[in-house]
Amino acid sequence: MKVILSTERLVISEAELSDATFILELLNSPKWIQFIGDKGIQTMEDAENYIRKNLINSYRANGFGLYKLCFKEFMVPIGLCGFLKRDYLDHPDIGFALLPNHEGKGLMLEAGKALMEHARSNLGFDEVLAIVLPSNGRSRQLLGKLGFQEMGKVMPIGSQEELLLFSNKKSPSNGAASS
């Protein structure tokens, strides 16, 4: 397990194929489906392929990705938080998700603050973006606590739904890639 950071309550590390049970549960949780979308992950094999394709490949190709959050005490995975590189955005964006029974405890704020510092100090990011469905009030609130401001809207490639675009810069450029 490659540990990226630790906080007061959490160990933040790269996901591994052995996390397939956790990924299967997280990606089929109600809020993941509602706010991120159904990724069609129905079996352990699907979950392993998702880890390989979306998480491990990002660590190798970009030097960052979505990281697994575990309680220090038990080392049980409870969520993902980290950075994605999307073709339609000029800068990496932060993404996060928790298993339902761990929401509302400040865990994602704790992880988000640590990872934003990691982004500045170790990854050299001068700007981090975020994209959120307008209906996702909790994520919008968390982004505000992490110092993000709403900058406008963006339409992801192949999507029918506009997303709100946030940036951690006080007066950034739009952040959306120009065509």
Keyword list:
alpha+beta; 179 residues; 5 helices; five-stranded antiparallel β-sheet; 32% helix; globular
List the helices and strands and how they pair.
Layout: E1 3-6, E2 10-13, H1 20-27, H2 30-35, H3 44-62, E3 66-71, E4 77-84, E5 93-98, H4 107-121, E6 129-132, H5 137-145, E7 149-154, E8 163-167
Could you give a quick summary of the protein structure above?
This protein is of the alpha+beta class. The protein has helices at residues 20-27, 30-35, 44-62, 107-121, 137-145, and strands at 3-6, 10-13, 66-71, 77-84, 93-98, 129-132, 149-154, 163-167.
What does it look like?
- The chain has five helices and eight strands, in the order ββαααβββαβαββ.
- 32% of the residues lie in helices and 24% in strands.
- Helix 1 (20-27) crosses helix 3.
- The protein has helices at residues 20-27, 30-35, 44-62, 107-121, 137-145; strands at residues 3-6, 10-13, 66-71, 77-84, 93-98, 129-132, 149-154, 163-167.
- The protein has a five-stranded antiparallel beta sheet with strand order 1-2-3-4-5. A three-stranded antiparallel beta sheet has the order 6-8-7.
- With 179 residues, the protein is of the alpha+beta class.
- The model has no long low-confidence stretch (mean pLDDT 94).
